[in-house]
Amino acid sequence: MSGKSDEIKGRVKKAVGELTGNQRLKQEGQIDKVAGKVKQGVDKVKRTLQGK
Q1: How far is CA 46 from CA 23, 29, 36, 39, 52, in A?
Q2: How confident is the model at residue 1, as a pLDDT?
Q3: Phi, psi of 44 (to 5 degrees)
Q4: Tally of domains within the chain
Q5: Using alpha carbons only, how large is the chain's radius of gyration in Å?
Q6: What is the pLDDT of residue 24?
Q7: Distance CA 33, CA 17 (A)
Q8: pLDDT, tens digit, 9 for 90 and up, residues 4-45
């Protein structure tokens, strides 16, 4: 998955967790969201280093 799709998946999981009161799902969503942002940052650095 791309970083952006991981971030979106995380947002959805977090929202569902908040709506249902499921703390585990909420935490998983937060982790996925952060992981997606990290992937996006790594990809940006790679593109910069490659000169694209």
Answers
A1: 35, 26, 15, 10, 9
A2: 73
A3: -65, -40
A4: 1
A5: 13
A6: 98
A7: 13
A8: 999 999 999 999 999 999 999 999 999 999 999 999 999 999
